[in-house]
Amino acid sequence: MTERKITGKHVLFGFTAAFGIIIAVNLLLAYSAIKTFPGLEVANSYVASQTFNERKAAQESLGWTVEAHHHDGRLTLSITDDTGQPVAVKMLDATVGRATHVADDVAPDFQFDGSAYVADVPLGDGNWNIRMTAIAFDGTEFQQRVVLIKD
Question: If we measure between CA atoms, which residue out of 84, 126, 132, 142 comes closest to residue 108?
Fold first, then answer.
C-alpha cells in the first residue's frame, strides 16, 4: 500500500477551502440581514437626540397607556389615561408589522368606537408590533412601539 503524504499544496487547499466557506457564509448572512432590515428609525440620530428628553417628558405627562389585541381579524388599540379612561386623539397613525421585515406591513384604518380604536385587519401567525404616533388635542406627540397580543 502506498503511503500518502500531506504536502504544502494540500494544506494550502484545505485552508483556502475552509476560509472560503467561512467568507461565503458571512457574505450570505450579511446579505440576508441587509435585505430584511426595515430601515432607519430617524435620519439623523444626533439631531433626534437633542430633543429626546423634552419629547419624553411631554409624552410621559400625558399618562397614557397603550395596549393592542387581535381577535378573529379585529384589531383593538386601547389608549387610556392615568385614571383608566379611554382617550380619543386628534390624529392616529399606526403601522402593523413584524419586527424582522416590512414586507407584511399594513396601515389599518382605525376608528374610535368610544372606548378604543378598532380596525379589521387579517394577520397571520407569529409576532406582530404596532408602530404608532398619536397627537393629543393639546398638540403633544405620543410615539410608541406596541407589542400586539393575539387572543
Answer: 132
pLDDT tens per residue, range 79-114 = 999 999 999 999 999 999 987 777 788 999 999 999
Give the pLDDT confidence of 40-81 residue by residue, as tens digits: 677 788 888 898 999 999 999 999 999 999 998 899 999 999
Residue 130 dihedral angles phi and psi, to the nearest 5°: -120, 125
Cα angle, residue 46 at apex, residues 146 and 135 outer, rounded to 5°: 40
What's the pTM value of the predicted model, to 2 decimals?
Answer: 0.69
Exposure class string for 131-151: b at 16+ Cβ within 10 A, else e: bbebebeeebebebebebeee
DSSP the chain: -PPP---HHHHHHHHHHHHHHHHHHHHHHHHHHHHH----S-S-HHHHHTTHHHHHHHHHHHT-EEEEEEETTEEEEEEE-TTS-B---SEEEEEEE-SS-STT-B----EE-SSSEEEE----SS--EEEEEEE-TTS-EEEEEEEEEE-
- How remote is the C-alpha of 53 from its chain's centroid? 22
Q: Do the bridges between strand 65-71 and strand 111-112 make them parallel or antiparallel, or are there none, so unpaired?
A: unpaired
